[in-house]
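All the exercises in this workshop are built on plain-text protein records. Sequence and backbone structure share a record, each on its own labelled line. The question running through the whole workshop is how a given chain folds. The record below serves as our worked example for the rest of this section.
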Amino acid sequence: MLKRVLKLLLGIFIIPVCIGVSLGLYEQLNRIKVISYYHQKYFVIGIVAYLVVHAVIFKPSYLYIFSHEFMHVIATWISGGKVTSFKVSPKGGSVSVTKSNLFIALAPYFFPFYTIVITIVFFTANFFLKGGINYNPFLFAIGFALAFHIILTVDFLKIRQTDLMHAGYLFSICLIYIVNLIIIGLIFSLLFGSVTFKEFLMDTYFKSKDIYVSAYQQLFL
C-alpha cells in the first residue's frame, strides 16, 4: 500500500514538468509561421498521409506490436540482460527477459523504432552515395513513421498496460509524455531553422521550475 502511494506521489510530483515541456514546445512551434520551406512540407505531408491511412484504410497494429516488443529486446540488451522468448501476433505480443527495470519497461513508448530505422538507413545510404540521396522521400517517411508511433502509442495506452505498472501508472504516463515531446522538439529543431532545441530545453526547465516554486510558496509560505 505504501509503495503504491509513493508511486502516485512521484507521478504527481513530475506533473509540472509535463506542463513545462508542453509550454516550451508550444512556444517553439509557434515560431513556425508558415510551412514555406520546400523540403519541410514533405514532413507534414507524411504526417497527414499516416492520419489518412489510420482513419480510412487500416491501423497497422501488427507493425506497432512488433516494434514495441523489439524495443523491449533492444532495451534488455543495452541493460545487460538476455531475451529468452519473443512472440508477436496481430492480437498482441510478449517478450521474456532475464532482467527488468524502468528503461526496459518503457523504452517502446519512448523511442519511435521505425523513425530510428529510417534515419539510420537514410544516412548510411547517403554516406556511401556521397550525399546523392533525395531528402524529400526521407522527410515524408520520417513524418509518416513519427505520426504512426505517436498515434498508436496513445491508442495502446488507452488499454491499461502492464509495462506501466513498474514505476506506477501516473508516473509512467507522465514520463512517456515528457520524453515523446522532447523527441518531437528535437526532430522539429532539425527540420525548421526557427525551432531551437537548446532553447526548448531551457524553456522547459524554467517553466517547470516556476511551477514548482509557485506550488511551494502556495503550500508552505
Observations:
- The mean pLDDT is 86.
- The chain has two domains: 20-35+196-221, 38-191.
